[in-house]
């Protein structure tokens, strides 16, 4: 299913009413068709504001949360961004519209190769998708202007804090259980880090090591 003009307006209206107000984020989400990233059984629900299963026990995030996290990152066009948790690739595709370069990493090889095939079909050449344990970040490409983690950890992984440029921003869900998590924004200052709590969220856990 692809969206007609009315469907598109409804999708954007729902995003706005849930707090996605940044014009650049909304146009990126208008341009990147979420249905391409939702396969099989659930594809006809791609424009509903809910997370959906994508295989390997993982989910594509709810569109309004994708919008809110992207907005919270305050990306500028020259930024180099790291995303931990490629999943379907949808969030990375949105980031690719706003940033100069996006590195995205997932512990499941299959998710990375499926996402890469979609990036290729959309000619999103500024995304590099890699299989690996994102808890360690991506040493070779550091420092990053922005880091987005789309799986929940108890605390921000310290390698990610270290790979953030001074003045850089990281957005991630943190929490000690599957049910109670907060989305936080970390800003790296010259002298340390500033932490800001944004809202309650619910994400799959950040898991160490590679998937099957
Ligand atoms: N951003 C995705 C949704 C991510 S779901 C989208 O737009 O569809 C969370 C993802 O984080 C899952 O795919 C999971 O495999 C991945 N993940 C969990 N722990 C990880 C780790 N240590 N390193 C890399 N990816 C991880």
Blueprint of the fold:
Layout: H1 5-17, H2 23-31, E1 52-55, E2 58-60, H3 63-73, E3 80-84, H4 90-96, E4 101-106, H5 109-121, E5 127-131, E6 144-149, H6 158-162, E7 164-174, E8 181-188, E9 193-201
Parallel strand pairs: 3-4, 3-6, 4-5, 6-7
Antiparallel strand pairs: 1-2, 7-8, 8-9
List keywords for this structure.
Rossmann fold, about 210 residues, two-stranded antiparallel ribbon, globular, seven-stranded mixed β-sheet, alpha/beta, about 25% strand, binds S-adenosyl-L-homocysteine
CATH class: Alpha Beta
Question: How would you sum up the global shape?
Answer: globular
For the record, what is the CATH homologous superfamily label?
Vaccinia Virus protein VP39
Low-confidence stretches: none
> Would you list the SSEs in sequence order as H and E?
HHEEHEHEHEEHEEE
Largest sheet: 7 strands, mixed
Structure description:
- This protein has 212 residues and is α/β, with parallel strands linked by helices.
- The chain has a single domain (5-201), classed as Rossmann fold (3-Layer(aba) Sandwich), CATH 3.40.50.
- The protein has 6 helices and 9 strands; from the N terminus they run ααββαβαβαββαβββ.
- The strands form 2 sheets. A 7-stranded mixed beta sheet has the order 5-4-3-6-7-8-9. Strands 1-2 form a two-stranded antiparallel ribbon.
- A hairpin with a 4-residue loop joins β8 and β9.
- The chain binds S-adenosyl-L-homocysteine (SAH).
- S-adenosyl-L-homocysteine binds at residues 58-61, 84-85, 87-88, 90-91, 105-108, 111, 133-135, 150-151, 204, 206-208, 211.
